[in-house]
């Protein structure tokens, strides 16, 4: 195993369009994990969610989250990103980031349509400031 630097962790997170797995805490204390598409703005993590999702409800109650992004092919690697979330319902910012996220996961041809579809009242832009970022690579290496 080899520990990644913070810069290596951030580069790994956006090198390929891997789905992130976000963990939040329900108001009753139980964990909740959900897949997300995301982008980075410097060290800040951005994703969108509908205002009535479990993610949104959990983050309103407790804005702390943890995200795992992993490479599931040998020799395996992962990054764990912990942070504190803040919501925005600014439609221009939402459209901007929804397009960037769509471009990462669906390609440039779909980015505009996806951005417009998701930049509506009720959709939230979640911006996460990191509290810890760690990663390891070559997990199965000898």
TrEMBL record:
Q: Which InterPro entries match?
A: F420-binding_dom_put, F420H2_bilvrd_red/Heme_oxyg, Pyridox_Oxase_N, Split_barrel_FMN-bd
On whether Oxidoreductase is a keyword of this UniProt record, the answer is yes
Pfam family of this protein, just one?
PNPOx_N
Write out the entry's keywords from A to Z. Oxidoreductase
Question: Which part of the chain is the Pyridoxamine 5'-phosphate oxidase N-terminal domain?
Answer: 10-120
Q: SUPFAM superfamilies, from UniProt?
A: FMN-binding split barrel
Q: Which GO terms describe its cellular component?
A: cytosol
> What is the name attached to this protein's record?
F420-dependent enzyme
Q: Which GO terms describe its molecular function?
A: coenzyme F420 binding; oxidoreductase activity, acting on the CH-CH group of donors
